[in-house]
Automatic annotation (TrEMBL):
GO terms for molecular function: DNA binding. Pfam families: HTH_31, MLTR_LBD. SUPFAM superfamilies: lambda repressor-like DNA-binding domains (SSF47413). This is Helix-turn-helix domain-containing protein. Residues 11-83 form the HTH cro/C1-type domain. It comes from the Bacteria.
Length: 258
């Protein structure tokens, strides 16, 4: 029995024990020997075989489909975190995740960045800039100091000034396309993403070429160089953070390298 299979079974058994039968349409009764729902009741709610469900809780090495996991998550009324944990333990991709939490107000994001001295900006799902601080505005001249909206990919691939500002532009642009593809792996069938990619590919031959390569890279930190028009050559160490409750939102910080 693998550790993941045992954890999956224990997780489901614990959730089941916390369910109040009456809340799920079953009589509480005084003859229940265990707290919460019975295995047979969970199987009935999820429309799966009682024996097969018992095997899952026992940690047996059986194939659990994404559809079955979805029905179990709905049957046990799992929240976003519990559902994500369920799919992770089962080694399956959730193709129907719950809607994301309400978007964070832009004013709140901007306020958070004011306390960061280094250049910092926040990216959304399509790498649109949701907020940035004054240090980032001073670094990205011709972009963040101009009226918005702003988008990192549109700037790098469509703005002529980006090729002058960004050191080793071709390598950085190629990497950004691979990072964006990896970052979008869970929403490649999103019509909004498809339209954004199609438009960018139509306007930028370089992006179209890099996107066709299907390279994927995680967004990593590292040394970033810039040729600033007034401050000369600048070097930064880039670090990217993700928000726990908003996985599509990324905080990017550029710490100066002395």
């Amino acid at each position: 029995m693998s550790i993941r299979r045992k954890e999956l079974g224990d997780f489901l058994a614990m959730l089941r024990s916390k369910c109040i039968p009456a809340a799920f349409g079953f009589p509480a009764g005084s003859r229940r020997r265990t707290q919460g729902l019975r295995r047979e009741e969970v199987a009935q709610l999820a429309d799966i075989s009682p024996t097969w469900y018992a095997w899952i809780e026992q940690g047996r090495d059986i194939n659990v489909s994404g559809d079955a996991l979805d029905r179990l998550a709905r049957a046990l009324r799992m929240d976003r975190t519990q559902r994500a944990y369920l799919f992770e333990l089962a080694g399956r991709r959730d193709t129907s995740p719950p809607p994301a939490d309400p978007a964070l107000p832009a004013a709140l994001l901007a306020q958070l960045l004011t306390d960061i001295a280094a250049p910092a900006y926040v990216l959304g799902r399509y790498w649109e800039v949701l907020a940035f601080n004054q240090a980032a505005q001073a670094l990205f001249v011709g972009w963040l100091d101009a009226p918005g909206p702003h988008n990192l990919l549109e700037y790098v691939f469509l703005a002529t000034g980006a090729r002058d500002l960004v050191e080793d532009w071709e390598a950085r642009a190629r990497r950004l396309a691979a990072e964006f593809r990896a970052d979008s792996r869970a929403s490649l069938d999103d019509p909004g993403l498809e339209a954004f990619v199609a438009r960018l590919a139509a306007e930028s031959p370089e992006f179209a070429e890099y996107w066709r390569r299907h390279d994927v890279l995680e967004r990593q930190g590292g040394l970033r160089g810039f040729h600033h028009p007034t401050r000369g050559h600048l070097s930064f160490q880039q670090v990217t953070f993700r928000l726990v409750d908003h996985d599509e939102i990324k905080l990017v910080m550029l710490t100066p390298v002395v």
